[in-house]
């Protein structure tokens, strides 16, 4: 099956950004870049009228998101068909300190993807998803570690959400104060926030030297 | 109204951790510590059968979570009563590299709080919530910045979720491999992950020196 995907995602009433629409982004290039930089997503689904939000690892492969099915295990036990979900990925880039508390904000990039998730059956597609989970963070890990055997692949449930209904929201730059507040003697600016990796801690039963792809990990 | 809160949260069928129950935590001290270390939560709610998950700032004040109502603005337009929500806070502590891909994992601490959120009306309660949003990250900021006036307080919608149905899930420590895999020549261990703050960037219209509480920010 060929799939024609437009460069811009179609804005629907459901993905239309209601609050602060000037921060909305609908082009795939920006959206995919945010998705590829994140490694934890938050999966939302409903059960008996109660929403649940569960963190889990994910990866984008082509025009779909793959995530660990265990995140939605509570729901999956009750559903055989497609599962209405929302996958949200949030990157926090900075605290925005305005002169007034009211204008404090965050610099961030977030993606919200809506749709129906389905269980992945094909072993090869499942392998590609698992490869995505590890390689997106630690490029080279897939080839060093022992890859999943058939039994392990079967024991792993992976869900796929096509990226058909998706939008992003981005805030960048300095604080924006009300004009009179600029005269106040209050420090204003941005505190950059990022994910940092510290030195790897070798397992006590491991005698292998740190491989090249784990040295100088940077975000 | 006095509220008697037990040290351990009552486990309900909805907060019972289904997957990997040995990682479940139900004591309030641990749960509150996780909540107080996070600054972004993911709010889940449903509309017309479609779940939505929106990131927003939050703070714990006493035995309740407060979060920006704008996160749920899409929903709030349609609801006047309590809004069934799930608030999830996730802290990522490390990538856990096992010898086999199958046993790769993450070290993390997450809290899931369920219930009905209601709009906060009382200005003083709203002020305390806003104070919580800033002070939990930047202790001292509330007293330096211009505090919200009545008009700004009115323009800010804040939601409250009582912490009555809440659980946490925690993974720590090294990878756990299948016994035969320990002989494989694969590096294994943990890559610690944390939030880092970089040097503050002063707004170009600000001439104030960096205040003490913003120097040497650490996570």
UniProtKB/TrEMBL annotation, chains A, B:
Coiled coil: none annotated. InterPro entries: Pyridox_Oxase-rel, Split_barrel_FMN-bd. PANTHER family: 5-NITROIMIDAZOLE ANTIBIOTICS RESISTANCE PROTEIN, NIMA-FAMILY-RELATED PROTEIN-RELATED, FLAVIN-NUCLEOTIDE-BINDING PROTEIN. This is Pyridoxamine 5'-phosphate oxidase family protein.
